[in-house]
Write the structure tokens for this entry.
Amino acid sequence: MSVVIGIAGGSGSGKTTVQRRILERFGPDAIALLEHDVYYRDLSHLPLEERTQFNFDHPNALETELMVGQLDTLLGGIPIENPTYDYANHSRLTETDRIEPRPVVIVEGILVLAEPALRDRMDIKLYVDTAADVRLMRRIDRDINERGRTLESVMTQYRRTVRPMHLEFVEPSKVYADVIIPRGGKNQVAIDMVLARVQTLLATDQAKG
């Protein structure tokens, strides 16, 4: 049986850093990572201009039902073929990533705590809480350098959908968190507490096995 850790928080909050701390502690052979944003619905049937106007920050933009099904498959001890996504062109790729079952499964994404079906499968629910200006600066840096966006497109998307959807869906989901981590990956005390809890759950599962 795997320990499932949900990591949510606004875009640019530091979820990846928290995830990296868990990976460093338990090692890559112990971790399976499911990222919510590779489950964006395929928009390749639409012209590129229409895709750029799509609200990618609403829960309906994601094929969460597929993610839930694949998570259940992993928890059943069976490998999955994880989707891959082209963020520059807003379309799902034909290639997949094979993910093997592992003792720890991390479910990461801004909306994972807003989805009851995902929450129900989590043993530990984390919300990474970081100031809005810091999150925006990180998002600008990521989208320009990693996803081929322009500053204008990033800011337009932020005003039109990112901020409103954060206030409507992401921020309220923190009430479901077992642990809220202020300052993200820099909060070593909170991260140490999480790591200790994961270790306890793993030890309990091993004892049962």
Q: What stands out?
A: The mean pLDDT is 92.
